[in-house]
Design brief:
The complex is a heterotrimer of chains A (341), B (907) and C (240).
Chain A: H1 2-6, E1 9-15, E2 23-27, E3 33-40, E4 45-53, E5 59-61, E6 63-75, E7 79-92, E8 95-97, E9 101-107, E10 117-118, E11 122-133, E12 139-149, H2 160-177, E13 199-202, E14 207-213, E15 217-223, E16 227-229, E17 233-243, E18 247-262, E19 265-280, E20 288-294, E21 304-307, E22 311-323, E23 328-338
Parallel strand pairs in A: 3-12, 16-23
Antiparallel strand pairs in A: 1-4, 2-3, 4-9, 5-8, 6-7, 6-11, 10-11, 11-12, 13-14, 14-15, 15-17, 17-20, 18-19, 18-22, 21-22, 22-23
Chain B: H1 5-31, H2 35-47, H3 56-79, H4 84-97, H5 104-119, H6 126-136, H7 143-157, H8 166-190, H9 199-226, H10 236-255, H11 258-271, H12 274-288, H13 298-311, H14 323-340, H15 346-362, H16 370-382, H17 388-399, H18 408-413, H19 415-422, H20 428-445, H21 452-467, H22 475-478, E1 484-487, E2 492-495, H23 496-510, H24 519-532, H25 541-562, H26 567-609, H27 613-631, H28 651-664, H29 671-686, H30 691-701, H31 731-748, H32 753-776, H33 784-799, H34 804-823, H35 831-860, H36 867-898
Antiparallel strand pairs in B: 1-2
Chain C: E1 2-6, H1 20-26, E2 40-43, H2 51-58, E3 63-66, H3 74-81, E4 89-94, E5 97-102, H4 113-123, E6 127-130, E7 136-141, E8 144-149, H5 166-179, H6 184-201, E9 207-214, E10 217-226, E11 229-238
Parallel strand pairs in C: 1-2, 2-3, 5-6, 6-8
Antiparallel strand pairs in C: 1-9, 4-5, 7-8, 9-10, 10-11
Classes of the chains: A mainly beta (341), B mainly alpha (907), C alpha/beta (240).
GO cellular component, one term (chain B): retromer, cargo-selective complex
Region (Disordered) (chain B): 724-775, 849-868
Subcellular location (chain B): Membrane
């Protein structure tokens, strides 16, 4: 930053209608809150660049360009940055600056394939970069970060067929999950009791699953769907078909899992975003427990799959039973989150 | 895990402190309109309700605190409304916001609080809210926390449930029933929490929580009651029958829990109106009761149900014609129950039958005893007692209807009652209690017993009291516990209870009458009970015969006045009466002679009144027999002051007085009979043991020779002085008279000589009197000389006393007697005689005063051994002088006021 | 001071109980004492041996005095009441009035006014209460006041019947019966009527007395029970 103060030139990037544009508040790792303007996929990025010399000095340059950049930063063994988008426009040919100059620019209908993202080991960001090339082959640059939201094409008309597919995915995942005994919840020492006979019922409207521990517990749970917009509500039910455990309470958690890199060189980070108690006490056979979890109040993000083959962020819904001896039994299944208008 | 009470208390206190603290923070936030922060504090205090470590009672305590604090929040939310619409949106948002709460308990409490606040606003999606809240409550499966949460829901929605139309009603009812079902499940589940050793504790805790469950049913009943439908076809009874009753009873049956079934059935019976109960009665009895927990005591539920019917019997919900049908429903349930479970404990049978009896007794048709008969028939045929306690249960069944008896007729109609009563015949104590209760009731009714069938109907219950009441006390068993009374010269102990039973039997005897009050029929009824019942225990007739005889005599008196000419009937009546008295006397001669003497005197007087002189005479002779056999030598216990003429004296002396007073009242004895009897009594009087008794008896006898108009009943014409008239009776009694006379004469020989001399004068005197009396048509027996003789005799006896003070006292008594004789017109007691007597008394007083003065000097000389004696004598003398002066004052008064005793010297 | 004089109950020998209205009047409460206006109860005997009646009587007022009647069993009463002695007469003084009481069976002739007067003289009392006759009465003689409260139960007794005209009526009826045998029904009515009259004349009216004594004056209230109604009469006596 000190560079700018030494610089003899002030670069100011102004986006059109910036004040009225929606912003997102992002908390930086340092705890600072940044307010960034939000752009959608395919939206033009339009603005002006203003160059001003300091204290009336004369500045010579070899040209001014503006770029729209999209890059991914991952941290596995070290930080690797890769660019997936780079558009550039020449704003001025080499000349001398005495008075402030204003250059409008516009990137028309830019395809912004990915959403902006700041995860633990991965980061995806968009920015407008202005470069003033000087004789000494030195450059004066200014970057302004944009925040990008993408909305899936089919959100408004999510058809039943897609839903169906998703369900299959979920159930496949859940089969994989059952081998994973110790997941995000550290103290789940008895989780291997969940050697179960889970099966999946395909249902047009929702997800229904059968889970159990032989002669000990048998539950069936049902969510209305497996794909949720971020403003959505998870609605479901849990049927207790056999209860021989002394259950103390039951929770629903939302776990976000970030995967960076590709095996074997892969880093995974899990974070429980939501913990939500849905049952207090032990039910008896035949009881049905309702599930309702409003999502919009939580800090969730859409499901990102294999973003530019660099990273993925998925969200899992985990049903956790805690018994009187504080043993935890859980069942995870992925849910697909997407951003909604 | 197990916490001590102290630990629990500490935890409770911490909870309370936290709630108060957080609640205060919430309040101040609300004051500053910082709603979100307020909600956070709200959530904080709600977290205390997640506690695991409190007893239900303690939990209730913090629940109440929380309840109030939540109330503050909802008041704020209602009060803060700007416009209806904005408030509605605001509350809808808030309803969602609070659902982010991570813990379910605070989340649901806040939801319900806000949801119900929302419901109170016009245009709110009430039904959706109801459905949502009740659905979400499923999340709390912990019994206590769940119960309280749902209770909170129930309390909060209490006045908000819609019932404007039938659809509303359906939804509200469904809501309440659903909450009820869930709460019941939780409540039942509580029983199985914790270690099995805590089962009793759990049971106790559950009992404390029962009202929470029941409150739903209460509200359910209210809402059905409050609902009015525009549609006339709507019937709340049918609604209950079709939509409510089946669902709730199904739940109650299905839960299979003893406590829940007991309590909830009770609630259903209590809270739903009687009309509803009638409609569902058949189902309740046969579909519900028969399917309840096998160990559950149906009798308690039946009792509640029956009590409900009984309490409502005033309201005429069951018409008289329907009463039998109602009973039959219960009865067929009972038979079904028997069939279903032949091993029902005897106590259960007893309790059930007890309820059925109570039900029947509450019926308006109080003369219908068919149902009771059915019960007693069944009971006497099917119940068998195996122990004493069983018999006590039978006792309970028997005792119940007695209070409902309205007439003797009841006992006739209840023919199976007696059969059942006989089932406890081995337990005489219980039988007696029943019998006593029956007696008490009959006495309360006070209806006369008119014929033998009525008498039998009652006396068969009295028989146990007559026969099985040994007067002898079981000392080993009762001594020191029961209050006892000594009788027969302290030789025998009886209990107060025994006496009370005898008293009751006597009172029943008082009820015996006859159709149209025919006295002769009443008499034959009295004879009947004697023979058939009373003399079944001769030992106890002493307690009942006086009553029987007295009543018999009274009826004989009535009969005598009613049929004065039917002499044969009257005579045979008295003969039968004598047989009864004889039986009494021969069995209880030793200790009851005095009583029998009085009985005889009464009989003699009645016979005299009825002009049956030979009977009367005969009875008087019997009196003397008793006197001589048993009373002559008997003494009164304890000290009798010889100077006291006002008390009685020995039993012998009192007997003489009673005889005198009886004879004084006679008016129809033949003259010779009368004279013989009065001579005899005077003679007996003069032979009493003590001088003072002799003296007094003789001066009192003087009255027998001088009848006085005042004592004569108006219009009565005495026949004693009419010797010309033939006696009304046959020859036979006459002969008896002759015999008696001879006997009397032989005794007369013992008389003193001067008395014999007097006999001659008597005849003259009598003739003179007869002449006088004929004109007035009332002939009084008067013989002044004989009177004088008696007084003279008594004076002699008085004079012969060794105790000069007693002599003096007796002299003054005789003076008083003489004054009366004089006033009543006996010329022989004239002023000279009286003056002589007064002088005699004065002389005696002077002598005694002199003597006392001398004695006083002796005392002063140091002879103090007799001091006490001296003082006593001084008192006696003083008393005598006082009495004498009063007598003189009386004479003075009479002189002044009445002009009597003019020549009597009183100075 | 209010004193109740009550006599000749004859329970159970000749009656079942007092008229309920009397009982209610005399013991309005269930407390002990059951009547807070009456200070003194005097029973003139012939109560016979009803334990319940004895307890009831003795619980009316703070003091209860009983004398023995002709038909009373002294041994029983002593034990039933837990007292040492059942005397034949008694005496007490209130203000200026000396009051004596006795059943009177030992007085010869019983009920004779002069004999009673003589008794009062010897006892040295201004008022004499006596019983035994079942007929309520009160009169002044020789400057003294004589009170007989009658029978509280209206128990029958065996004295001469009250009404004197009955005999003639009865004979008239008898004559009529002989003459008109064909008119049987009418005669039956008359028969019943006659029987009724005979019973009437041999029945006593339930009664008791209350003595209100103050200074030298005794106001006597006579309570009688006729046709289910309680009647009260008042007589005043002042000692000269």
């Amino acid at each position: 930053m000190s560079l700018f103060f030494k610089s003899s030139l002030d670069i100011d990037i102004r986006l059109d209608n910036e004040e009225s544009r929606k912003h997102v508040e992002i908390k930086s790792p340092q705890g600072r809150i940044e307010k960034l303007p939000i752009y959608k996929d395919g939206e033009s990025v339009k603005g002006t660049v203003i160059l001003r010399t300091r204290e009336g000095k004369k500045v010579e340059h070899l040209g001014v360009k503006v770029q729209l950049l999209g890059l991914i930063e991952t941290n596995i063994d070290g930080i690797i940055t890769s660019e997936f988008l780079s558009l550039a426009t020449e704003l001025a040919s080499p000349s001398q600056l005495i008075h402030p100059e204003t250059y409008p620019f516009e990137f028309k209908n830019v395809e912004k394939q990915y959403e902006s993202y700041r995860g633990k080991n991965a980061l995806l960001k968009y920015s407008i970069k202005v470069t003033v090339t000087k004789k000494s082959s030195s450059e004066i640059t200014k970057e302004k970060e944009l925040w990008v939201y993408t909305y899936p094409m089919d959100t408004l008309s999510s058809t039943s067929t897609t839903l169906n597919l998703k369900q299959q995915e979920v159930s496949k995942d859940s089969k994989q999950e059952k081998a994973k005994t110790s997941g995000a919840l550290g103290n789940s020492n008895e989780a291997d009791h969940v050697a179960n006979k889970s099966s999946t019922n395909k249902n047009l409207h929702g997800v229904k699953m059968d889970v159990g521990i032989e002669d000990c517990l048998h539950i069936e749970f049902e969510y209305s769907k497996s794909r949720f917009s971020l403003k959505d509500v998870i609605i479901g039910k849990i049927y207790f078909l056999l209860v021989r455990l002394k259950i103390k309470h039951m929770e629903l958690s939302l776990i976000r899992r970030e995967t960076v890199g590709a095996p074997p060189n892969q880093v995974t980070d899990s974070e429980t975003v939501v913990r939500f108690e849905i049952m207090d006490g032990a039910p008896i056979k035949g009881e049905t427990i309702p599930i309702r979890l409003f999502l919009s109040g939580f800090d969730l993000m859409p499901t990102y799959k294999d973003i530019n083959k660099k990273f993925s962020t998925r969200t899992y819904l985990s049903l956790v039973l805690i018994d009187e001896d504080a043993r935890r039994y859980f069942k995870q299944s992925e849910i697909i989150l997407y951003r909604d208008q | 895990m197990q916490l001590s009470n102290n630990e629990r208390k500490q935890i409770l206190q911490t909870c309370i402190n936290n709630i108060k603290h957080q609640s205060n923070l919430m309040k101040s936030n609300l004051n500053d309109n910082k709603l979100l922060q307020a909600l956070k504090h709200c959530s904080n205090f709600l977290n205390e309700l997640r506690s695991n470590n409190l007893t239900p009672k303690q939990y209730y305590e913090i629940y109440m605190l929380v309840f109030d604090s939540l109330g503050i929040l909802s008041s704020y939310l209602i009060g803060g409304s700007n416009s209806k619409q904005s408030n509605s949106v605001f509350l809808a948002d808030l309803y969602e916001i609070v659902q982010y709460s991570g813990n379910i308990i605070p989340r649901l409490y806040m939801m319900i609080n806000i949801g119900t606040t929302y419901m109170a606003i016009e245009g709110a999606p009430t039904k959706d809210l109801m459905k949502d809240m009740i659905e979400m409550c499923h999340g709390v499966q912990h019994p206590i926390r769940g119960l309280f949460l749902r209770y909170y829901l129930s309390q909060r929605t209490k006045n908000l449930l819609p019932f404007d139309n039938e659809s509303d009603l359906n939804d509200s009812v469904e809501f309440l029933i659903s909450n009820f079902i869930e709460m019941n499940k939780l409540w039942v589940r509580l029983q199985h929490q914790g270690h099995s050793s805590e089962r009793e504790l759990r049971y106790k805790e559950r009992k404390e929580l029962k009202i929470l469950v029941g409150s739903n049913l209460v509200r359910l009943s209210q809402i059905i009651d409050d609902y009015t439908d525009a549609n006339e076809k709507f019937s709340s009874i049918d609604y209950y029958k079709d939509k409510v009753f089946p669902v709730i009873t199904e739940q109650i049956i299905q839960c299979k829990d003893h406590l829940a079934q007991t309590y909830l059935i009770d609630v259903i019976i209590q809270i739903f109106p009687i009309e509803f109960q009638i409609t569902t009665l058949k189902n309740l009895l046969n579909d519900v009761f028969l399917n309840l927990h096998p160990m559950l005591r149906k009798s308690e539920l039946i009792e509640t149900l029956v009590d409900k019917f009984i309490n409502c019997s005033e309201e005429s919900v069951v018409e008289e014609e329907e009463e039998n049908e109602l009973f039959n429903q219960f009865w067929s349930f009972y038979l079904n129950l028997n069939e279903l479970d032949p091993t029902i404990p005897i106590e259960e049978h007893s309790n059930l039958l007890q309820s059925f009896i109570n039900l029947s007794l509450s019926f308006k048709n109080s003369e219908n005893f068919d149902n009771l008969n059915q019960i007693y028939k069944h009971a006497s045929e099917n119940l068998t007692s195996t122990s004493d306690s069983d018999e006590e249960m039978w006792f309970n069944l028997l005792i119940l209807p007695i209070n409902y008896f309205r007439s003797i007729n009841t006992l006739f109609k209840l023919d199976n009652y007696y059969d059942f009563y006989q089932k406890i015949q081995n337990n005489k104590q219980l039988q007696k209690k029943i019998s006593i209760t029956i007696i008490d009731k009959l006495l309360e009714i006070g209806e006369p017993l008119k014929d033998i069938s009525e008498i039998d109907a009652i006396f068969r219950y009295l028989l146990v009291l007559i026969k099985e009441s040994p007067s002898k006390l079981d000392t080993a068993k009762n001594l020191g516990i029961t209050k006892t009374i000594k009788i027969n010269n302290d030789e025998k102990l009886i209990t107060v209870e025994f006496l009370e039973i005898q008293e009751k039997i006597c009172k029943i005897i008082q009820l015996i009458e006859s159709d149209q009050d025919d006295p002769s029929k009443t008499i034959s009824n009295l004879s009947y009970i004697r023979k058939k019942y009373l003399n079944k225990s001769l030992e106890n007739i002493i307690y009942t015969y006086p009553t029987l005889i007295t009543k018999y005599l009274y009826k004989s008196k009535i009969l005598g006045y009613y049929k004065p000419h039917d002499t044969n009937l009257l005579v045979s009546n008295f003969k039968n009466l004598s047989i009864i008295v004889d039986e009494f006397y021969s069995n209880h001669e030793e200790f009851s002679s005095s009583t029998i003497l009085k009985i005889y005197l009464n009989i003699a007087n009645v016979a005299d009144q009825l002009k049956l002189n030979s009977i009367s005479y005969e009875i008087y002779n019997q009196v003397f027999v008793i006197y001589e056999e048993n009373l002559k030598h008997s003494k009164k216990k304890g000290f009798i002051n010889p100077h006291d003429s006002l008390s009685g004296g020995s039993i012998a002396y009192e007997s003489i007085i009673l005889i005198i007073n009886s004879l004084i009242k006679t008016r129809h004895l033949l003259k010779n009979q009368y004279e013989e009897l009065i001579t005899k009594v005077t003679l007996h009087g003069s032979k009493l043991l003590k001088k003072q008794d002799q003296c007094r008896a003789v001066y009192l006898c003087s009255n027998l020779w001088w009848w006085n108009e005042i004592l004569l009943p108006n219009g009565e014409k005495p026949t004693t002085m009419i010797e010309e008239e033939k006696p009304k009776e046959d020859e036979k009694p006459k002969m008896e008279n002759t015999n008696q006379k001879e006997e009397g004469e032989s005794k007369n020989e013992e008389k003193e000589n001067n008395e014999e001399e007097q006999d001659d004068h008597k005849d003259e005197e009598k003739e003179k009197d007869v002449d006088e009396q004929e004109e007035e048509e009332i002939l009084l027996y008067r013989d002044g000389k004989r009177v004088l003789e008696c007084l003279q005799k008594s004076l002699r006896i008085a004079d012969s006393c060794m105790d000069p003070y007693l002599s003096l006292k007796l002299f003054i008594e005789i003076l008083n007697k003489c004054l009366i004789s004089s006033i009543y017109g006996n010329d022989l007691i004239d002023y000279k005689y009286l003056n002589g007597l007064i002088d005699l008394i004065k002389t005696n007083i002077d002598n005694l005063q002199d003597q006392q003065n001398e004695d006083d000097e002796e005392v002063e000389n140091g002879n103090d051994n007799d001091e006490e004696n001296e003082i006593k004598e001084t008192v006696l003398l003083k008393q005598a002088i006082g009495y004498f002066n009063k007598t003189l004052y009386y004479i003075k008064e009479q002189k002044e006021l009445e002009g009597r005793f003019q020549n009597v010297n009183i100075h | 001071m209010l004193t109740l004089a009550i006599s000749d109950l004859f329970i159970p020998e000749r009656s079942i109980d007092l008229p309920p209205k009397f009982k209610k009047l005399l013991s309005p409460t269930n407390n002990i004492p059951s009547n807070n206006k009456i200070q003194n109860v005097i029973c003139l005997g012939n109560i016979i041996n009803s334990q319940t009646t004895l307890s009831w009587l003795s619980n009316i007022s703070p003091t209860f005095k009983i004398v023995r009647g002709e038909y009373d069993d002294e041994t029983l009463i002593k034990q039933q009441l837990d007292i040492k002695d059942v005397p034949i007469y008694g005496k007490f003084q209130h203000d200026n009035l000396k009051i004596g009481y006795t059943n009177g069976f030992q007085i010869v002739p019983k009920d004779d006014p002069l004999a009673l007067s003589s008794f009062a003289r010897e006892l040295d009392v201004d008022i004499l209460i006596w019983g035994g006759t079942h007929k309520v009465e009160a009169y002044t003689l020789d400057g003294k006041f004589f009170i007989n409260p009658g029978s509280a139960t209206g128990a029958f007794n065996f004295d001469w019947p009250e009404e004197e005209d009955e005999d003639e009526d009865a004979e008239d009826a008898q004559d009529e019966k002989d003459e008109k045998k064909e008119k049987k029904e009418e005669t039956d009515d008359k028969e019943i009527n006659k029987l009724y009259e005979i019973e009437e004349s041999n029945t006593n009216i339930p009664s008791f007395c209350l003595l209100d004594t103050q200074g030298s004056t005794c106001t006597l209230y006579i309570y009688t029970y006729l046709q289910n109604e309680v009647k009260v009469d008042k007589i005043t006596y002042t000692k000269s």
